Amino acid sequence: MHHRYDVLVVGAGGAGLMAALYASKNKNVSVAVLSKLYPTRSHTGAAQGGVGAALGNVSEDHWEWHMFDTVKGGDYLTDQDAAEIFAKDIIEAVYELEHMGLPFSRLPNGKIAQRKFGGHTKEFGKAAVERACYAVDRTGHMILQTLYQQSVKAGVTFFNEYQVLDLIIEDGVCRGVVAYELATGEVHTYHAKAVIIATGGYGRAFKVTSNALSLTGDLMSIYYRKGLPLEDMEFYQFHPTGIAKMGILITEGARGEGGILRNDSGERFMERYAPTIKDLAPRDMVSRAIYMEIREGRGLGKDKDYVNLDLTHLPREIIEGRLPDITDFARTYLGVDPVTAPIPIQPTAHYAMGGIPTSIDGEALLDESGQTVRGLYAAGEVACVSLHGANRLGTNSLGDLIVFGRRAGVAAAKYAAGAEYAPLPVRADAAARAEIERLKSGSGGENAAKIRKELQETMMDNVSVFRTEETMSRQVEILKELKERYTRVSVQDTGMKYNTELMEAMELGYLLDVSEAMTYSALNRKESRGAHAREDYPDRDDEGWLKHTMAFRDLAAPGKVNIRYKPVVLGRFEPKPRVY
């Protein structure tokens, strides 16, 4: 089946909906959204704590301070042009969301409520500041609902439960996508002048993750398979506070409200690691501190593999009133009442700082020189602008999808309004159909679920919070073996309608690709910076490594990854040691 739209958005989370909404404001273009899920089930809805913006509603704040925290939090790998645009634009964007009807929590004077969050400071690092705008602990959910309502109102067309299988790129121009419709099993071709990728991250590469089952790096992988680069894939953030064993997120807002991390003796151990802002240090630092406590024998439980998040000193009305979802999570999944007992937590795979490289207007980059794939854009976690550098600051993910989703939507609509439809290649869907047929008709005995389990366990063991040459070299060999076994995967369900087994087998292929790019990039970077912590290279090396990694699959030599580099955009903030 064939469709034609001027602007086609892939993904209906916050970035995709923001892009679609702002593209639709250009009345000269038609806009459609393709989503793997029903839009309001997108993973943006799981974001809890808030969106950072220097509104100054509780105490004095300025966009320059937010920019500084973003750059410092990113361990100076953040592109400072992106950080400046972001810190300025997010203020206006939050007020726009408010005017759309987003039900922010409020101060007694009626202004948007703000609370403290990890890494956010005033006066360039002197003390913590209230910057996170929130809707109790359901901020992402409220953003998602608001943007979906606004997109429907604007007349955006939605194709829900469609799995994108291929990007149609020819002669450096994106011409559309190929997608599988779950309900019918049909393969559809979408012809477009501009395509915006907003499909989120790939946390399902790890065993313990806060990410939904749908976050499997699909479009990152498809981009990478075409010999196009993925940027800074070595930087993957582990959120400090996931429910022990499960990975379900406990928002940083819990610490923003006054929650304290404690080890087996009840010590507030973050006082030793970040004396100034303690439990509100950036996520990479807190995650490493937790792992150090566990490694040195100060963890809790039978296996001594978690620490506690203690809220018991806070009033019941704060815990239940401002943190209702995490209160329910603790009671439901652990049988723990956070009003009277601490919550067992451990770091959980949470957010990809790297992804498809883009300009500040969301244009997808062809290489490290800044050339673009015409008509192709990306925004949100799937993209690397690079706002987050080596470590994303808490709340900046929601801010990223709002600011850069909007910019991508505006830029794509402007491009489409002045462009003609580039002709589709003959049988544009051939590659996608061939992959479906390979999996359905394969006679190999390998099982996708078994390979996925081995991938997740080994990535967790070898490429997580702490890394070494030995563990990552081992993972390179494991990935080669898993990818070879993947060629022998076959599915038992040979039907086409709602063939979830087929889709999960395809998602495994995507996870293997992004894991390959991530592991090779991490093995190549011989320093520690932000979320990339190497025990064999413990220091940050600005002279040798203040640069972005660009990982290319070598199409002429399967299994080989070529690494090139792109300079960091510096500016008003010179690299300095990160001390909190």
TrEMBL record:
Residues that bear Tele-8alpha-FAD histidine: 43
Cofactor info, note text: Flavinylated by SdhE, about 5% flavinylation occurs in the absence of SdhE.
UniProt keyword list:
Electron transport, FAD, Flavoprotein, Membrane, Oxidoreductase, Transport, Tricarboxylic acid cycle
Membrane protein topology class? Peripheral membrane protein
Q: Which residues form the signal peptide?
A: none
InterPro entries in the record, alphabetically? Answer: FAD-dep_OxRdtase_2_FAD-bd (IPR003953), FAD/NAD-bd_sf (IPR036188), FRD_SDH_FAD_BS (IPR003952), Fum_R/Succ_DH_flav-like_C_sf (IPR037099), Fum_Rdtase/Succ_DH_flav-like_C (IPR015939), SdhA/FrdA/AprA (IPR030664), Succ_DH/fumarate_Rdtase_cat_sf (IPR027477), Succ_DH_flav_su_fwd (IPR011281)
Residues given in the record as substrate binding sites: 239, 251, 350, 392
Q: Name one GO cellular component term.
A: plasma membrane
Q: Where in the cell is it found?
A: Membrane
Q: In this protein, which residues make up the domain named Fumarate reductase/succinate dehydrogenase flavoprotein-like C-terminal?
A: 452-580
Q: Which PROSITE patterns match?
A: FRD_SDH_FAD_BINDING (PS00504)
Which Gene Ontology molecular function entries are recorded, alphabetically?
electron transfer activity; flavin adenine dinucleotide binding; succinate dehydrogenase (quinone) activity
- The active-site annotation reads 283
FAD-dependent oxidoreductase 2 FAD-binding domain spans which residues? 6-398
Q: Which domain of life is it from?
A: Bacteria
Identify the EC number(s): 1.3.5.1
**Catalytic activity of the protein:** a quinone + succinate = fumarate + a quinol
Under PANTHER family, the record lists: SUCCINATE DEHYDROGENASE 2 FLAVOPROTEIN SUBUNIT, SUCCINATE DEHYDROGENASE [UBIQUINONE] FLAVOPROTEIN SUBUNIT, MITOCHONDRIAL
Family assignment? Belongs to the FAD-dependent oxidoreductase 2 family. FRD/SDH subfamily.
Query: What protein does this entry describe?
Result: Succinate dehydrogenase flavoprotein subunit
